[in-house]
Amino acid sequence: MRALSMCGQACVLYGAAEYSRALDLTVLATPEALPALPALPAALDALHAAVIAVPSFDVRCLDRGHEVHFSIPDGSAFPLRVDIMSRMRGVEAFSLPWERRTTVALPTGEGDSEVLVGVMALEDLVSAKKTQRDKDRPMIRRLVDASYVAARDDAVTDVQVAFRLAELRQELEQLRFEARRGA
Description:
The protein is of the alpha+beta class. It has one domain. The chain is 40% helix and 19% strand. The protein has helices spanning 8-13, 39-46, 59-63, 95-100, 122-129, 136-151, 158-182, and strands spanning 3-6, 22-27, 50-51, 68-72, 80-85, 102-107, 114-119. The chain has a 5-stranded mixed sheet with strand order 1-2-5-4-3. The chain has a two-stranded antiparallel sheet with strand order 6-7. The radius of gyration is 18 Å and the shape is globular.
């Protein structure tokens, strides 16, 4: 199944750490992808995950842009959440983020074995975080900073420079807006 990690856990993988008890996934939800979708419900079932909000886990709901929320009990007062979506405001259709994804090798905890995880590209992750929630603005800033630090010793592309300059401009415009509003 085509799925990408995004939001909190992806931010951790990019070095813009933020504690998160949620795993946010974006999945390809098309009729062609239907044969692969049963693997995810089976995995969630094995973890005793329960849907905690409407709608049901259904390709039609995902395709309309709804997010499906699951809770995985872990014995604590705050169980792990898994949020699954297919469409996000401000982010292109799944095929483009899938092409731009980053693949990260994570240890499984069983010897030297690793699992490969697809992570939404940093630029797409920043777009997904632009939800107009105040708590996301510092994360966007940390992601852009982490991008700069990670690439400063590498050959920086024109696309990366344009991305950082656009983000800096938007941050300055937001600060000006807040200064005018507070005056």
